Amino acid sequence: MSTYEDAQRTVDYLRSYGMDAARLEVVGAGLRQATRHRTVPVARLAGVGALKGAALGVLAAVFTTLVAETTLNGLAVVVWGFVYGVIVGLLWGLFRGLIRNRPEATITQTLPTSYEVRCPTDDLPVAQTLLADATDVEDGRVEREVIANAPTEHKNAA
After folding, report:
1. By the 8 A CB rule, do 15 and 24 touch?
2. What confidence tens digit (pLDDT) does each residue in 66-123 have?
3. DSSP assignment of the chain, as one string?
4. Long-range contact set of residues 59-67: C-beta below 8 Å, sequence gap at least 24
5. Which residues does 59 contact at the CB level (< 8 Å), separation at least 6?
């Protein structure tokens, strides 16, 4: 099967004819290792950090204005909270951008290139017959070659 969805449709097709779903497995085959280097622009992270910091600074300033007695009026406290929030958020976003985009920060995944539907050997003739006699193969819902052409000598046949 080329995709997981195709394999899942095959399992659904076999289940619709009474096969036990607990005995059918969708297994990834042809594993390959993929390495990605996910880069996010540092300026974008710094900008988002500045916006978050500004919002947090304004919230802290409003709280301070409501709770504490200060020598400044409320607007000055909110403005200073905004300014300090932008500065702290900008530095935090810049730090995150520099750490996230370092050369050794890569993501390595093991991905299958195709999927197989497997069943126990005693269920294999039933599955092969169902998929070989499938009348709805032409509309692309089931790929019958995977189980229909499976070798019968394996314990878990494809």
Report:
1. yes
2. 888 877 788 888 999 999 999 999 999 999 888 877 766 677 888 888 888 888 888 8
3. --SHHHHHHHHHHHHHTT--GGG-EEEEEEEEEEEE-----HHHHHHHHHHHHHHHHHHHHHHHHHHS--SS-HHHHHHHHHHHHHHHHHHHHHHHHHHHTSTT--EEEEEEEEEEEEEEGGGHHHHHHHHHT-SSTTTTS--THHHHT--TTSSEE-
4. 60/85
5. 81
Contacts of 24 by beta carbon, 8 Å cutoff, 6+ apart: 11, 14, 15, 117, 118, 119
- pTM of this structure: 0.46
| Radius of gyration, alpha carbons of the chain | 29
Contact 113, 31 (CB under 8 A): yes
Q: Closest Cα to residue 127, out of 17, 29, 26, 28?
A: 17
Encoding tokens for residue 18? 């009474």
The structure tokens listed for 71 are: 């020598």
Q: CB within 8 A of 5, min separation 6: which ones?
A: none
